[in-house]
Amino acid sequence: MHNSLRARDMAYHFHSQTNPRRHEAEGPLLITAGEGCYVIDEMGNRYLEGMGGLWCASLGFSNERLADVAASQMRRLATYHTFNHRSNDPTVDVVEQIATLSPIPGSKVFLVNSGSEANDTMIKLAWYYNVARGKPGKRKIISRRGAFHGSTVMGAALGGLPHMHESFNMPGLNVIYTEKPHYYRNALPEESEEAYCARLIAALETLIEAEGPETIAAMIVEPIMGAGGVVTPPAGYFPALRQLLTKHDILLLADEVVSGFGRTGKWFGSEACSFVPDMMSVAKGLSSGYLPIAAAVIGDHIYQAIADEADRIGVFGHGFTYSGHPVTAAVAADVLRIYQEMDAPGRAAELGRRLFAALDARVAGHALVGEVRGTGFLAGIELVADKATRAPFDPALKVGALVEQRCRAHGVMIRNMGDVISICPPFVMTPEEVDQLVDGIVAALDDVA
Ligand code: PLP
């Protein structure tokens, strides 16, 4: 046993977002194969993946066409870089496709490897843009409590989840926080969605005026907040936010790492939420998670302001060895072609209707469930101790984690963020598999109730 996969993992692997002592006690869940929408562990147990892994695998886990694209690109040009004007054909293909799909006018695409790097890139671009415009004092970034924007130093600073900051003695990176638009949890009794939005926007304007708009560069938002609890904003929130930020010359950066490429039933979450950002970050669904690739997508107004001043202020000092890696670019370019062929937004909307019909009929009324919410093929289930008062469970009870464990026992993978269960399945699921996913969740809720 001492050289089993489990033992070797426990001996050598320091896991992401994992308690090391608990890992020593419990060992890994070793996934050794993927087939359609299932992943299979080393014992042969099959799990229907309701999260596409980590909000990624929109095309499931065994797309042969992508395997062939990767192999043939690796045989033709396995690696090269894009510094100092170099490029390669898969990179041209993928940036053209991203820019064409992008709702931001005149998009230019800066390739990176992860969602965190894409967000870091947007922040550095916002700072560089303000230096180019002669406004170097505009540096602060507004983010929202509960947000998740990645794990790099800046990504974690942007995030509004306490465990991503505490214990790191995070340096002062000039991030300021405002409330997330979580109507179910934070609206006042009897407050309408319109009144709730107006209150949040007014509070944000007070914050902007107190800090001084001349000190604020940008605000970063997930159109649909993912890890913070699949928070879908009330309809008027983003149009009002866009107006407020424009008034104060503050850039609006959309983190589309989860919500991009069809997930919301539109190509991008900003379209589902009725706003146009100045820049957006994309990752995850861009390659369906098959290889690490991400991008910051930049509006023409920002690009032109920067390009005009590069001789004076120096080139944009940023970029990664694997920015525009030919193999990751070739796979992402083909993923985008597959999304177009299958009409990914339409497919997500259709499967989402099936999912929400089943959740509304079989989950929303469950004693443990306060709210079912979401957009497109992205759903959250908020668990509560008391349906009538919306009182949350004592976090020490770890009810969400228990539901997640029981789902696994029923052959279904979901993800719990505290007491919100998230669902973000592959677009290649069959309608019957959507029903099976809900069967597993209902059985798990019944086990825990
Ligand atoms: N932004 C959002 C909204 C995310 O959900 C994530 C990851 O889950 C990230 C950024 C970070 O992406 P990555 O882990 O690829 O750095």
Write structural notes for this entry.
Helix 13 (326-342) crosses helix 14 (344-362). The strands form 3 sheets. This protein has a 7-stranded mixed beta sheet, sandwiched between helices. It has a 4-stranded mixed beta sheet with strand order 1-2-3-13. A 4-stranded antiparallel beta sheet has the order 11-12-15-14, covered by helices on one side. The longest helix is centred in the middle third of the chain and has 19 residues, at 193-211. It folds into 2 domains: 5-63 and 343-448, Aspartate Aminotransferase, domain 1, CATH 3.90.1150; 77-342, Aspartate Aminotransferase, domain 2. The chain has 16 helices and 15 strands. The mean pLDDT is 96. The protein has helices at 5-12, 20-26, 52-56, 64-76, 89-101, 115-132, 153-158, 183-186, 193-211, 237-247, 269-272, 300-313, 326-342, 344-362, 399-409, 431-448, and strands at residues 31-35, 38-41, 46-49, 108-112, 140-144, 175-178, 216-221, 251-255, 279-282, 294-298, 369-375, 378-383, 412-413, 415-417, 420-423. With 449 residues, the chain is α/β, with parallel strands linked by helices. Bound molecules: pyridoxal-5'-phosphate. The site of pyridoxal-5'-phosphate has 17 residues, from helix 3 and helix 6. Pyridoxal-5'-phosphate is lined by residues 54-55, 114-116, 119, 148-151, 222, 226-227, 255, 257-258, 283.
Q: Any descriptors?
A:
about 450 residues, alpha/beta, Aspartate Aminotransferase, domain 1, four-stranded mixed sheet, 15 strands, about 40% helix, about 15% strand, globular, binds pyridoxal-5'-phosphate, aminotransferase, pyridoxal phosphate
